[in-house]
């Protein structure tokens, strides 16, 4: 597809694509996920199991189906993943990481069961990952990324313990990752990316520093992610992916520019990504569904009454 002589990477939505939300099949798809623990797909997802549980629970909560999930089994799983250092891993036997520590705290917040884990140890673990420049390592191996800055402050804010880190230095580091186009990258000088932008705007919202963002400049960059199909990409010259329906829309919501996007076209794209046979969402129309993609049901519902994390604000949901 070319516009004004420029080649645009996009997809074509077929006339017979789904155009209404099939909630029952999505609920069945998520409820059945993991019931067959010998499945190849289930085994492959072990490295991010904690976040997968969070994504699934959030969708089920939005659909009013949370009671179909085994709360006690999930809580026991989280407890089994907390290490002596306080951090929480993706699955039993894996190393702890900020990403999965946040997912676990988000799940426990959803269930109002935060005291099921050793909160003080979680706080110590998160605080111990802050570096001298204010950034956060994701784990003991030292990778630095603005995603981890978001995970750290979101975790501590949900626990009511933001005082455990140097918020001022953390803000300075995130602002140093702001680019000329208004967006944010994973580190200073890195390319702007919609996922990083969500993390950084969420971080700045939680820390009360959102006024540091040029909302018009950033809003324009985010809206340029919308393609003729209605779908959104994460950065220029990429195909649309339904996951960016969340990263882009949530960032626009945080900075007060969500009305700039063509919601009708985006809605049509998201609906076309549904699998009418099995339930679930694919990255693009016609592809295979994945649990992560099912989370974008949120974009069909807007602000949903009753969901505690959304009540807390778009900046708390989710980490990946």
TrEMBL record:
Domain of life: Eukaryota
Keyword Metal-binding: yes
Residues annotated as domain Prenyltransferase alpha-alpha toroid: 23-292
GO cellular component: Rab-protein geranylgeranyltransferase complex
Signal peptide region: none
Annotated cofactor note: Binds 1 zinc ion per subunit.
Family matches, as Pfam families: Prenyltrans (PF00432)
GO terms assigned for molecular function: metal ion binding; Rab geranylgeranyltransferase activity
Record key words, sorted: Metal-binding, Phosphoprotein, Prenyltransferase, Repeat, Transferase, Zinc
Necessary cofactors: Zn(2+)
Enzymatic reactions: geranylgeranyl diphosphate + L-cysteinyl-[protein] = S-geranylgeranyl-L-cysteinyl-[protein] + diphosphate
EC number assigned by the record: 2.5.1.60
Subunit structure: Heterotrimer composed of RABGGTA, RABGGTB and CHM; within this trimer, RABGGTA and RABGGTB form the catalytic component B, while CHM (component A) mediates peptide substrate binding. The Rab GGTase dimer (RGGT) interacts with CHM (component A) prior to Rab protein binding; the association is stabilized by geranylgeranyl pyrophosphate (GGpp). The CHM:RGGT:Rab complex is destabilized by GGpp. Interaction of RABGGTB with prenylated PTP4A2 precludes its association with RABGGTA and inhibits enzyme activity. Interacts with CHODL.
Function as written in the Swiss-Prot or TrEMBL entry: Catalyzes the transfer of a geranylgeranyl moiety from geranylgeranyl diphosphate to both cysteines of Rab proteins with the C-terminal sequence -XXCC, -XCXC and -CCXX, such as RAB1A, RAB3A, RAB5A and RAB7A. Catalyzes the transfer of a geranylgeranyl moiety from geranylgeranyl diphosphate to both cysteines of proteins with the C-terminal sequence -XXCC, -XCXC and -CCXX.
Family: Belongs to the protein prenyltransferase subunit beta family.
Protein known as: Geranylgeranyl transferase type-2 subunit beta
Organism, scientific name: Electrophorus voltai
């Amino acid at each position: 597809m070319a516009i004004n002589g420029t080649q645009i990477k996009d997809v074509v939505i077929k006339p017979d694509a789904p155009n209404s939300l099939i909630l029952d099949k999505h609920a069945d798809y998520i409820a059945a996920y993991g019931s067959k623990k010998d499945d190849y797909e289930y085994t492959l997802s072990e490295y991010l199991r904690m976040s997968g549980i969070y994504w699934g629970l959030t969708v089920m909560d939005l659909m009013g189906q949370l009671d179909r999930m085994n709360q006690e089994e999930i809580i026991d799983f989280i407890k089994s993943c907390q290490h002596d250092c306080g951090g929480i891993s993706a699955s039993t036997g894996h190393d702890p990481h900020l990403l999965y520590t946040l997912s676990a705290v988000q799940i426990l917040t959803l269930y109002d069961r935060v005291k099921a884990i050793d909160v003080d140890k979680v706080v110590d673990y998160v605080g111990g990952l802050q570096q001298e420049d204010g950034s956060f390592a994701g784990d003991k191996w030292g990778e630095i990324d603005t995603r981890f800055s978001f995970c750290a402050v979101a975790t501590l804010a949900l626990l009511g313990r933001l005082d455990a880190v140097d918020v001022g230095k953390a803000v300075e580091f995130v602002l140093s990752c702001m680019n000329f186009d208004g967006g944010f990258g994973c580190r200073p000088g890195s390319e702007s990316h919609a996922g990083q932008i969500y993390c950084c705007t969420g971080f700045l919202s939680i820390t009360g520093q959102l006024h540091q963002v040029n909302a018009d400049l950033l809003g324009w960059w985010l809206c340029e992610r919308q393609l003729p199909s209605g779908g959104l990409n994460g950065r220029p010259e990429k195909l649309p992916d339904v996951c960016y329906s969340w990263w882009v829309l949530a960032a626009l919501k945080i900075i007060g520019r969500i009305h700039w996007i063509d919601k009708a076209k985006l809605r049509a794209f998201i609906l076309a990504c549904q699998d009418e046979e099995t339930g679930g969402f694919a990255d693009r129309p016609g592809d295979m569904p994945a649990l992560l993609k099912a989370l974008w049901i949120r974009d069909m519902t807007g602000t949903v009454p009753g969901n505690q994390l959304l009540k807390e604000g778009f900046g708390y949901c989710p980490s990946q």
